[in-house]
Amino acid sequence: MQTDRLLAWILRIGATVAALMMLLILMFLLFESWPALTGLSLIRFVTDAAWHPLEGAYHLMPMLLATLLASSGALMLAVPLGLASAVFIVFFASPRLAAVYKRLIELLAGIPSVVFGFWGLTTLAPLINEWHPPGASLLTAVLVLTLMVLPMITLTAYTAFVAVPDALLRNAAALGLSRWGMIAGVALPAARNGIVAGIILAAARALGETMAVLMVAGNVVQYPESIFDPVRTLAANIALEMAYAMDDHRAVLFVSGLVLMVLVMVLSALAGLFERHRHA
Amino acid sequence: MSLHISADGYLRFYRTFISAVIAGLMVFSMTTAHAGTQRLTLTGSSTVAPLVNEIARRFEAQFPGVRIDVQTGGSSRGINDVRKGVADIGLVSRALKPGEEDLHAYTIALDGIGLIVHARNPVVSLDKQQVVDIFTGKITRWNAVGGDDARITVINKAEGRSTLELFLEYFQLKNSAIRPHVIIGDNAQGIKTITGNRNAIGYVSIGAAEYESRRGVPLRLLVLDGVASSVDNVRNGNFPLSRPLNLVTASAAQGLARQFITFAQSAQVHDLIEAQYFVPPDAD
Q: Complex ipTM, two decimals?
């Protein structure tokens, strides 16, 4: 019992440190972006003509839009693909094929983002360039992001499907439902909350992804008119310019970090909500 | 989901935990034991850093007990860090600007900025006005300057990079006037983007571009206003779009920093400078 108590304390301390770290990061972001939040009027992030920090123009909206577009585009592709993969593993594949396929998806999840970016820059962007220049574009970013969040969605959906009580599925079979009827009518609704929580986590990942997007998105700050136009996301903007930024420019970059963080916090709160429903 | 840890699991957890703590302490004591060595921290331009890294390695070999840290982050970071005292020496790939007179700059090499295109692009030469028109979007197709009938992809550098500053200054442009299709960070990303896009034009350090094209990477340095973009033309001063690579200190360099700067400016490192396709400043 002594060891139990000791372990409990170690865990408590560990948990507190983790939570404090999060708070410290948030405070640090606020502290660093304070000069911009107080010194520049906030409306300028929306009304300035463009993003030219060295000429004192800090328009953030195109980058916010690009961030949202790239992430939602990736989800639009990755959600159906991921769900299909999970359904395939759980309900259709033979055990051996399912194991191999799942291992492959896990491998995909483990590929570092810079490798995806490098592949996008040297292979995918030139291919798209042949079709519609300049190649580095919103579309390329969406495709690379899709590959990155696909395994996340697949694996969380897989876990949710596996957690569906066997009794439900057996009852469905006993009622004479077809395999598809069982999946669509029983398994999907029962696993819904877990799947949605996984999608939200994937969205958070897509929003914050930096290196891969930086390498393939083209990084021009503009409202895209088509999916072939280059865009710059908030995270890519921070990575591109932070090392070179000073004074107000630097503070505004921290503001964009803050915006990104708030977006992810909202998403994770949503995920928490679904998680709670699942256990209720 | 619930977590089951057996008694055996606890034991294993403790063993791992304790060995991790011991390993941590050992690393800690090893680093403190080295407190006696002299350290020199250099930060700044990603153009200068690889060269300074080589010089630092040779310097460390000659003066055991000295440890030199080189970190990149751009010329602005070099200036910033030196002013804040975070770094002993800043790496700055341009001449000091007005407002930076409080710092001391020591030139160790020269570098030129060259316009590059894909090797299969038939255009070999551009004049100043054509470059301005291409980058500001007045010329959008290559056939206007004697090339293929294809849309030009303009590659620009991200704000704050000294390559961008020098480019803008030479062509007397404002960054907001440039209509880019791709914005890149470092030279390597620019070269990869050009080699992946036959109709792209960008600008990078001549040293880096010449090095890559000798290794067989399909890119070509354009002739600018009749002057070939080459290391030779940077060396003899004919190439207009060039810059000094500087080591910068907050006050007149002293002690170890002084020693390192003298070393970096001496003939002992000319082979290193030339190996990176830069030009020693006193060569002409």
A: 0.80
What is the model's pTM? 0.78
pLDDT in tens, A65-107: 999 999 999 999 999 999 999 999 999 999 999 999 999 999 9
CATH of the domain at B48: 3.40.190.10
Boundaries of domain holding B103: 36-109+244-275
**Structural tokens at position A11:** 């865990």
Q: Within this chain, do residues B116 and B231 fall inside the same structural domain, yes or no?
A: yes
Partners of B247 in the β-ladder: B91, B106
Q: How far is the alpha carbon of B236 from chain A, nearest alpha carbon, in Å?
A: 31
Residues from chain B contacting residue A53 (CB–CB below 8 Å): 159-160
pLDDT on residue B282? 63
- Tell me which residues of chain B have a C-beta less than 8 Å from any C-beta of chain A: 10, 13-14, 17, 72-77, 80, 150-151, 153, 158-161, 174-176, 180-185, 189, 192-193, 196-197, 199-200
Is B1 part of any domain? no
Q: Is the peptide bond before A134 cis (omega within 30 degrees of 0)?
A: yes
Query: In chain B, count of helices (H) and strands (E)?
Result: 10, 11
Partner residue facing A244 (CB), from B13, B74, B183? B74
Residue B77, pLDDT > 70, answer: yes
Q: What is the pLDDT of residue B106?
A: 93
Q: Where are the beta strands (DSSP E) in B35-158?
A: 38-44, 66-72, 89-92, 104-118, 125-126, 153-157
Assess if residue B172 is contained within a domain.
yes
